[in-house]
Write a structure and sequence with these properties.
- The protein is of the alpha/beta class and 373 residues long.
- The chain has 16 helices and 13 strands.
- Helix content is 44%, strand content 16%.
- Helix 9 links the parallel strand 8 and strand 9.
- The longest helix has 18 residues.
- The termini are close together.
- GO terms for molecular function: glycosyltransferase activity.
- This is Glycosyl transferase family 1 domain-containing protein.
- It comes from Photobacterium proteolyticum.
Length: 373
C-alpha cells in the first residue's frame, strides 16, 4: 500500500489528537506513514510517541534547497493563483517538503485543515508528480487549493456540499472518528459531582457573552469548569472576574493530554457554545463531542449544522446558537433530569458514535480513495 506523507497542523486537540488517531489507523491498514511539520517544537500526546519520534520538521531540509528547482514549472501556475503565501516563501517551503518526501519514499501527500499547509503540500506534490489530498474546511480559506488537490475530504455533509460548489474535484465525506478500541464499553459507574464542563476552543466574544448572560439567569448556585489553552481562557477569566456571579466557576489550563478522558465522568454535561462565526473551525469541537459520546458524558450544544449531524434528539440537547436564554433553560432542565433518563441518553449516544463515527470507518474510506489514485 502507498506510503503517505502527512503534513500536520501546528497544534494538537484538547484531548487525544484526531490526526494521530487517523495516522495510526492508516498504519494498521498497511500504509507506511511519514509525518512532516512546519514547527520543530511540535507537541505530541504520549500515545503518539511514534509520530513525535519520526516527525520531520521542514527546517531539517536545506533552507534554500535547489532540489528539483528545474521542476518548478510544474507548480508555477498554482503558486501565482493561490493566496495562502507569497511566491518565493511558498516555493521554498514546497521545495523543502519535496526534498524530504522523495528522500523518504512518499507516494502520496495528505494534509489537514490549513491553507498554507495545503499550499505547501500541493507545491511539493506537483514537483514530485505524486497525488495530494486535503482535508477541507471552507472554500474561501483553501482558495485555489481546491482545484489543485486530487481529492478533498469534508468532515460534514454540509461542508461537502459547500466545497463541491467551488470545485469540480472530488469531495468525499469522511468524518473524523473516535478510536473504538479506547471505549470498549460505556462506563456504567457514572456519579458526577460537578455540573458542567465547558471546553474553550476559541476566543470568540459571542460565545463568552452567551455564557455570561446565561449564568446571570440562574438564581441557584451551579458549578462549571472551563478548560482550554491559557491564551483562550484569559478573556473568560477577565470577564467572569468582573461579575458578581454566585457560582463555582473555575478556569483550568495546562491540562495533561489524558485530562479529558480522566475527568469527563465528573460532570453532568459538556457544553459546546460554538457559533456561526466559529463553525469554520469545527473539526476540533466536533471531535470533542464525539469523544464525549464515547465517554458517556451528556452533551448540550448549539444547533450548528455540524452538531446536528453528530447529535440527534435522543443523543444530546441542542439550543439556538448565541441564545443565552435558551442555553439557561436547557442547562436548568438538564440538572432536573433523572439518572435513569440521563443513562438512557448516554447509552444511545454511545451506540450512535460507535455506529457512525469510528476511526476504522474513517481510515477505510480515506485509504480506499488514496489507493484509487
Amino acid at each position: 500500500m502507498k506510503k503517505i506523507g502527512y503534513v500536520i497542523p501546528d497544534s494538537p486537540a484538547l484531548s487525544e489528537s484526531f490526526i494521530g488517531i487517523e495516522i495510526r489507523a492508516m498504519m494498521s491498514l498497511g500504509h507506511q506513514v511519514k509525518p512532516y511539520a512546519f514547527d520543530d517544537k511540535m507537541l505530541f500526546h504520549p500515545i503518539d510517541a511514534y509520530l513525535g519520534f519520526n516527525c520531520i520538521s521542514l527546517s531539517d531540509a536545506p533552507i534554500y534547497s535547489l532540489f528539483k528547482i528545474w521542476k518548478a514549472y510544474r507548480c508555477h501556475s498554482f503558486i501565482l493563483k493561490q493566496q495562502a503565501m507569497g511566491y518565493l516563501p511558498l516555493l521554498r517551503k514546497g521545495l523543502q517538503l519535496a526534498y524530504l518526501a522523495e528522500r523518504d519514499g512518499c507516494e502520496h501527500l495528505h494534509t489537514h485543515l490549513s491553507s498554507h499547509h495545503a499550499a505547501t503540500a500541493i507545491v511539493a506534490a506537483k514537483i514530485l508528480k505524486i497525488p495530494i489530498s486535503v482535508v477541507g474546511s471552507d472554500a474561501k480559506s483553501l482558495s485555489y487549493s481546491l482545484q489543485a488537490a486530487d481529492f478533498i475530504c469534508a468532515i460534514t455533509k454540509q461542508m461537502q456540499n459547500e466545497l463541491q460548489l467551488a470545485t469540480e474535484q472530488p469531495i468525499y465525506h469522511i468524518p473524523f472518528g473516535v478510536h473504538e478500541d479506547n471505549y470498549s464499553s460505556l462506563v456504567r459507574a457514572w456519579r458526577p459531582h460537578k455540573d458542567f464542563l465547558l471546553v474553550c476552543q476559541t476566543a470568540d466574544a459571542k460565545e463568552l457573552r452567551t455564557l455570561i448572560v446565561a449564568l446571570e439567569q440562574f438564581s441557584s448556585e451551579i458549578s462549571i469548569d472551563i478548560v482550554g489553552k491559557p491564551s483562550l481562557l484569559s478573556p473568560f477569566k477577565k470577564q467572569l472576574g468582573n461579575l458578581a456571579l454566585n457560582h463555582q466557576i473555575s478556569c483550568i489550563k495546562n491540562m495533561t493530554p489524558n485530562w479529558y478522558h480522566q475527568h469527563a465522568s465528573n460532570y453532568k454535561a459538556l457544553i459546546m457554545l460554538s457559533t456561526a462565526s466559529t463553525y469554520r473551525n469545527a473539526d476540533t469541537p466536533a471531535f470533542t463531542i464525539k469523544e464525549a459520546m464515547a465517554l458517556g458524558l451528556p452533551i448540550i450544544a448549539s444547533d450548528l449544522p455540524i452538531h446536528i449531524e453528530i447529535l440527534d434528539s435522543e443523543s444530546g440537547q441542542l439550543f439556538p446558537a448565541g441564545d443565552s436564554h435558551a442555553l439557561a433553560i436547557v442547562m436548568e432542565s438538564h440538572l432536573k433530569r433523572s439518572d435513569s433518563d440521563l443513562n438512557l441518553q448516554r447509552a444511545y449516544a454511545f451506540n450512535r458514535v460507535m455506529t457512525l463515527f469510528t476511526i476504522s470507518h474513517q481510515a477505510t474510506l480515506l485509504s480506499k480513495n488514496i489507493e484509487a489514485l
